[in-house]
Design brief:
- This protein is an alpha+beta fold and about 350 residues long.
- The longest helix is centred in the last third of the chain and has 37 residues.
- The radius of gyration is 21 Å and the shape is globular.
Length: about 350
């Protein structure tokens, strides 16, 4: 088996009761037929009745019900799942059991990534250096990161482990990676985003996302970070605040950009294997700009940004943009309509 794996995948350990997040909040959790049959034979009886009473069927598919606040009906007040609390992880439905792992098999290639809505994964993107490893039959051939010119520089030949370009074998990742980061390096040398341009872009994005939130009742957790744009503050004062934000966050932001681009260009393809390269680029850049807007909103209130703050905004952005299919599509359309290629690139650079 030829495998491409995100660096944290094999080292991942769930925080369980120590987790500060509720990973399934806002999801419509699908239950496979075999999972539903297992729940019908679940013991003890009180748990079986509890689980079955919170399952609904729609179009021949089973789902866990959600409360009005978007949380799964199986969650206790402390955010832990009653199924996992009273049984074990193997009893969970497949959707919950594999989270935050993302797995996709294309031909003889297996891709293993993880969802950034998990705080462990978000911390990896904020604090570490994102790597992808290429392996064949469990033998790691080479690991690559942002600094590499192409994502798959190692061969996957079945008879010999030889270093060679495999762009023609694992398209579109190799060429997309190369083209994307060539553009990134070129844009960094050109004129950067001004505070006024950032403010205009942020207001456009937050206004559009607000419409999505109000129409879908998802992503309500984003609203606190948008509060700064609703306050009675002059444009000049906001621009000065943005300049301070750019200054204090520059080093952390540059590292996060590199990590998130390295992570998301591949991970998005795992989630959406039929999506065109251009659409992956739009989605990735849109998510990054949302992360930056949320970080500014947090900074405007607290006057500082800790690593935990950065992890929070990465989680929030990913949840909003990737967890729900309907919201994800609406965000994608918004990002593609709001900003031209050059504009969205410059909004990420300062």
């Amino acid at each position: 088996m030829k495998t491409v794996t995100l660096g944290i995948y094999d080292k991942f350990s769930c925080l369980a009761g120590e987790c500060p997040s509720t990973c399934c909040s806002g999801w419509k959790i699908r239950i496979a037929e075999e999972d539903y049959r297992r729940f019908q034979n679940l013991s003890p009886e009180w748990l079986r009745q509890d689980v079955l009473s919170h399952i609904e069927q729609k179009d021949s598919t089973y789902y866990f019900q959600n409360r009005k606040d978007g949380r799964c009906a199986m969650l206790d007040e402390d955010g832990l799942c009653r199924i996992q609390r009273n049984t074990d992880e193997k009893t969970l439905c497949n959707t919950c059991r594999k989270y935050p792992r993302l797995i996709n098999k294309t031909g003889d290639m297996l891709y293993l990534s993880m969802a950034a809505s998990c705080p462990v994964v978000a911390s990896y993107l904020v604090n570490d250096s994102v790597m992808w490893s290429a392996s064949y039959n469990d033998n790691v051939i080479q690991s690559v990161s942002y600094s590499d010119s192409v994502i798959w520089p190692a061969s996957f030949e079945e008879d010999r482990m030889e270093t060679a370009s495999v762009q023609n074998k694992v398209q579109p990742f190799g060429e997309m990676w190369k083209n994307f980061f060539s553009k990134w390096d070129r844009m960094q040398e050109e004129k950067k985003c001004s505070s006024r341009s950032f403010l205009t872009g942020a207001e456009k994005l937050t206004d559009s996302i607000l419409d999505i939130i109000l129409s879908s009742r998802e992503g309500i957790y984003l609203l606190d970070e948008f509060a700064i744009f609703e306050q009675d503050i002059s444009e000049e004062d906001l621009c000065r605040l943005i300049e301070k934000f750019f200054s204090v966050s520059r080093a952390k932001w540059e590292k996060l950009c590199q990590n998130y681009l390295c992570y998301r260009l591949v991970s998005r393809k795992i989630e959406m294997p039929d999506e065109a390269e251009k659409e992956i680029e739009v989605q990735t850049l849109g998510e990054l700009f949302l992360i930056r807007v949320l970080a500014f909103g947090r900074y405007a209130v607290t006057s500082h940004l800790s690593d935990d703050d950065w992890c929070d905004v990465v989680q929030m952005a990913y949840r909003f943009c990737a967890h729900g299919k309907k919201v994800s599509q609406a965000f994608h359309q918004t990002a593609s309509l709001l900003f031209s290629d050059e504009t969205i690139w410059k909004l990420l650079l300062s």
